[in-house]
Amino acid sequence: MNSIAIYSDLICPWCYIGKRRMEEALRELPTGTEVLCSWHPFQLNPGMPPAGLDRKKYRSEKFGSWERSQALDGQVTAAGKSVGITFRYDLQTHTPNTFDSHRLVWLAGASGVQDAVVEALFRAYFCEGVNFSDRRRLVEIGAASGMDRAKLERSLGSEEGASAVREAEQQARVVGLSGVPFYVINEAATISGAQPAKTFLDALCKPGKEPANADGATPICGPDGCEIPR
Predict the structure, then answer these.
(1) Residue from 190, 183, 182 nearest 209 by CA
(2) Is 0.90 topped by the overall pTM?
Protein backbone atom coordinates (compact mmCIF):
# COMPACT_ATOMS: atom_id res chain seq x y z
CA MET A 1 0.00 0.00 0.00
CA ASN A 2 1.38 3.38 -1.06
CA SER A 3 0.65 6.47 1.01
CA ILE A 4 0.58 10.20 0.37
CA ALA A 5 0.32 12.59 3.32
CA ILE A 6 -0.81 15.97 2.04
CA TYR A 7 -0.32 19.21 3.98
CA SER A 8 -2.54 21.99 2.72
CA ASP A 9 -4.78 24.92 3.53
CA LEU A 10 -8.28 25.06 2.08
CA ILE A 11 -7.77 28.62 0.78
CA CYS A 12 -4.50 27.79 -0.98
CA PRO A 13 -5.07 27.80 -4.76
CA TRP A 14 -1.92 25.81 -5.47
CA CYS A 15 -3.20 23.14 -3.10
CA TYR A 16 -6.29 22.77 -5.28
CA ILE A 17 -4.24 22.75 -8.47
CA GLY A 18 -1.80 20.31 -6.86
CA LYS A 19 -4.68 17.99 -6.01
CA ARG A 20 -5.66 17.84 -9.67
CA ARG A 21 -2.09 17.11 -10.75
CA MET A 22 -1.73 14.41 -8.09
CA GLU A 23 -5.00 12.83 -9.25
CA GLU A 24 -3.70 12.80 -12.82
CA ALA A 25 -0.66 10.86 -11.60
CA LEU A 26 -2.81 8.39 -9.68
CA ARG A 27 -4.84 7.65 -12.82
CA GLU A 28 -1.63 6.76 -14.64
CA LEU A 29 -0.42 4.22 -12.08
CA PRO A 30 -0.48 0.52 -13.05
CA THR A 31 -3.85 -1.16 -12.58
CA GLY A 32 -4.28 -2.46 -9.05
CA THR A 33 -1.89 0.02 -7.43
CA GLU A 34 -3.32 1.14 -4.11
CA VAL A 35 -2.64 4.60 -2.71
CA LEU A 36 -3.96 5.91 0.59
CA CYS A 37 -4.15 9.72 0.71
CA SER A 38 -4.48 11.59 4.00
CA TRP A 39 -4.98 15.32 4.47
CA HIS A 40 -3.24 17.33 7.19
CA PRO A 41 -3.70 20.94 8.36
CA PHE A 42 -1.59 24.02 7.74
CA GLN A 43 -3.05 27.49 8.24
CA LEU A 44 -1.59 30.17 6.02
CA ASN A 45 -3.12 32.84 8.27
CA PRO A 46 -3.18 31.34 11.79
CA GLY A 47 -3.77 34.75 13.36
CA MET A 48 -6.86 35.49 11.27
CA PRO A 49 -9.85 36.60 13.42
CA PRO A 50 -12.53 33.87 13.78
CA ALA A 51 -14.93 35.87 11.59
CA GLY A 52 -12.29 36.47 8.92
CA LEU A 53 -11.63 39.81 7.23
CA ASP A 54 -12.98 41.69 4.24
CA ARG A 55 -11.00 40.20 1.37
CA LYS A 56 -10.49 43.37 -0.64
CA LYS A 57 -9.27 45.35 2.34
CA TYR A 58 -7.09 42.53 3.68
CA ARG A 59 -5.39 41.69 0.39
CA SER A 60 -4.97 45.32 -0.64
CA GLU A 61 -2.99 45.90 2.54
CA LYS A 62 -1.10 42.60 2.22
CA PHE A 63 0.02 43.13 -1.37
CA GLY A 64 0.18 46.91 -1.53
CA SER A 65 -2.88 47.45 -3.71
CA TRP A 66 -6.08 45.78 -4.86
CA GLU A 67 -4.77 45.88 -8.43
CA ARG A 68 -1.73 43.80 -7.40
CA SER A 69 -4.00 41.30 -5.66
CA GLN A 70 -6.17 40.99 -8.74
CA ALA A 71 -3.12 40.46 -10.93
CA LEU A 72 -1.99 37.57 -8.71
CA ASP A 73 -5.51 36.11 -8.77
CA GLY A 74 -5.46 36.31 -12.56
CA GLN A 75 -2.23 34.35 -12.80
CA VAL A 76 -3.55 31.60 -10.55
CA THR A 77 -6.83 31.54 -12.47
CA ALA A 78 -4.92 30.92 -15.70
CA ALA A 79 -3.04 28.03 -14.09
CA GLY A 80 -6.29 26.60 -12.77
CA LYS A 81 -7.79 26.43 -16.25
CA SER A 82 -5.01 24.05 -17.30
CA VAL A 83 -6.36 21.44 -14.86
CA GLY A 84 -10.06 22.15 -15.30
CA ILE A 85 -10.62 24.50 -12.35
CA THR A 86 -12.58 27.73 -12.83
CA PHE A 87 -11.52 30.05 -10.02
CA ARG A 88 -14.23 32.60 -9.13
CA TYR A 89 -12.43 35.18 -7.05
CA ASP A 90 -15.18 37.63 -7.96
CA LEU A 91 -17.53 35.69 -5.65
CA GLN A 92 -15.28 35.87 -2.60
CA THR A 93 -16.03 38.57 -0.04
CA HIS A 94 -13.91 37.39 2.90
CA THR A 95 -10.55 35.88 3.65
CA PRO A 96 -11.66 33.40 6.31
CA ASN A 97 -10.15 31.77 9.33
CA THR A 98 -9.68 28.15 8.17
CA PHE A 99 -9.36 26.41 11.54
CA ASP A 100 -12.92 25.03 11.52
CA SER A 101 -12.55 23.85 7.92
CA HIS A 102 -9.51 21.85 9.04
CA ARG A 103 -11.56 20.44 11.90
CA LEU A 104 -14.14 19.37 9.32
CA VAL A 105 -11.42 17.58 7.33
CA TRP A 106 -10.24 15.85 10.52
CA LEU A 107 -13.79 14.75 11.34
CA ALA A 108 -14.27 13.56 7.75
CA GLY A 109 -11.26 11.29 8.16
CA ALA A 110 -13.02 9.47 10.98
CA SER A 111 -16.09 9.09 8.73
CA GLY A 112 -14.12 7.74 5.76
CA VAL A 113 -15.01 10.63 3.44
CA GLN A 114 -11.98 12.86 3.85
CA ASP A 115 -11.07 13.24 0.19
CA ALA A 116 -14.68 13.98 -0.77
CA VAL A 117 -14.89 16.69 1.89
CA VAL A 118 -11.56 18.24 0.86
CA GLU A 119 -12.70 18.37 -2.75
CA ALA A 120 -16.02 19.92 -1.73
CA LEU A 121 -14.27 22.53 0.43
CA PHE A 122 -11.90 23.56 -2.36
CA ARG A 123 -14.80 23.82 -4.80
CA ALA A 124 -16.95 25.75 -2.33
CA TYR A 125 -14.28 28.35 -1.61
CA PHE A 126 -12.67 28.79 -5.00
CA CYS A 127 -15.63 28.23 -7.32
CA GLU A 128 -18.64 29.28 -5.23
CA GLY A 129 -17.27 31.96 -2.88
CA VAL A 130 -18.29 30.19 0.34
CA ASN A 131 -17.03 31.84 3.54
CA PHE A 132 -15.47 29.18 5.80
CA SER A 133 -15.96 31.39 8.83
CA ASP A 134 -19.66 30.47 8.64
CA ARG A 135 -20.01 27.10 10.39
CA ARG A 136 -23.43 26.56 8.88
CA ARG A 137 -21.85 26.37 5.43
CA LEU A 138 -19.24 23.91 6.69
CA VAL A 139 -22.03 21.71 8.04
CA GLU A 140 -23.75 21.84 4.65
CA ILE A 141 -20.55 20.83 2.88
CA GLY A 142 -19.91 17.93 5.24
CA ALA A 143 -23.49 16.67 5.07
CA ALA A 144 -23.51 16.84 1.26
CA SER A 145 -20.32 14.76 1.26
CA GLY A 146 -21.84 11.93 3.29
CA MET A 147 -21.39 13.00 6.91
CA ASP A 148 -24.19 12.91 9.48
CA ARG A 149 -25.58 16.44 9.70
CA ALA A 150 -26.79 16.34 13.31
CA LYS A 151 -23.55 14.81 14.55
CA LEU A 152 -21.52 17.30 12.55
CA GLU A 153 -23.45 20.23 14.00
CA ARG A 154 -22.68 18.97 17.50
CA SER A 155 -19.01 18.36 16.69
CA LEU A 156 -18.36 21.77 15.11
CA GLY A 157 -20.33 23.43 17.89
CA SER A 158 -17.96 21.88 20.43
CA GLU A 159 -14.18 21.62 20.63
CA GLU A 160 -14.06 18.17 19.05
CA GLY A 161 -10.96 17.79 16.90
CA ALA A 162 -9.55 21.17 17.92
CA SER A 163 -6.61 19.83 19.91
CA ALA A 164 -5.81 17.24 17.22
CA VAL A 165 -5.72 19.91 14.50
CA ARG A 166 -3.56 22.23 16.62
CA GLU A 167 -1.14 19.41 17.40
CA ALA A 168 -0.88 18.30 13.76
CA GLU A 169 -0.22 21.83 12.59
CA GLN A 170 2.35 22.43 15.30
CA GLN A 171 4.18 19.26 14.29
CA ALA A 172 4.28 20.49 10.68
CA ARG A 173 5.83 23.79 11.74
CA VAL A 174 8.32 22.08 14.07
CA VAL A 175 9.75 20.09 11.16
CA GLY A 176 10.15 23.32 9.19
CA LEU A 177 7.12 23.36 6.93
CA SER A 178 6.51 26.95 5.85
CA GLY A 179 4.39 26.58 2.72
CA VAL A 180 1.84 24.35 1.05
CA PRO A 181 1.03 22.11 -0.70
CA PHE A 182 3.56 19.68 0.71
CA TYR A 183 3.47 15.93 0.14
CA VAL A 184 5.18 13.05 1.92
CA ILE A 185 5.26 9.93 -0.26
CA ASN A 186 5.44 6.57 1.50
CA GLU A 187 6.79 8.32 4.62
CA ALA A 188 10.03 9.02 2.78
CA ALA A 189 10.17 11.17 -0.38
CA THR A 190 8.79 14.71 -0.25
CA ILE A 191 7.33 17.01 -2.88
CA SER A 192 6.96 20.74 -2.34
CA GLY A 193 4.47 22.71 -4.38
CA ALA A 194 1.95 21.85 -7.09
CA GLN A 195 4.35 19.86 -9.21
CA PRO A 196 3.48 18.11 -12.52
CA ALA A 197 1.95 14.64 -12.50
CA LYS A 198 5.28 13.11 -13.56
CA THR A 199 6.89 14.22 -10.32
CA PHE A 200 4.28 12.30 -8.33
CA LEU A 201 4.64 9.28 -10.59
CA ASP A 202 8.41 9.22 -10.13
CA ALA A 203 8.02 9.37 -6.35
CA LEU A 204 5.50 6.52 -6.30
CA CYS A 205 7.17 4.29 -8.87
CA LYS A 206 10.83 4.83 -7.96
CA PRO A 207 11.13 4.18 -4.21
CA GLY A 208 14.18 5.63 -2.54
CA LYS A 209 14.75 8.33 -5.13
CA GLU A 210 13.89 11.85 -4.07
CA PRO A 211 11.83 13.46 -6.86
CA ALA A 212 13.16 16.64 -8.41
CA ASN A 213 11.07 19.63 -9.40
CA ALA A 214 10.56 19.15 -13.12
CA ASP A 215 11.23 22.74 -14.09
CA GLY A 216 12.89 24.12 -10.99
CA ALA A 217 9.75 26.10 -10.10
CA THR A 218 7.88 25.64 -6.84
CA PRO A 219 4.27 26.81 -7.12
CA ILE A 220 3.46 27.15 -3.44
CA CYS A 221 1.54 29.28 -0.93
CA GLY A 222 3.06 30.59 2.29
CA PRO A 223 2.21 33.23 4.91
CA ASP A 224 3.40 35.97 2.53
CA GLY A 225 1.23 34.87 -0.38
CA CYS A 226 1.21 32.45 -3.31
CA GLU A 227 4.29 32.28 -5.52
CA ILE A 228 3.71 32.32 -9.27
CA PRO A 229 6.32 30.40 -11.32
CA ARG A 230 7.84 32.39 -14.13
Answers:
(1) 190
(2) yes
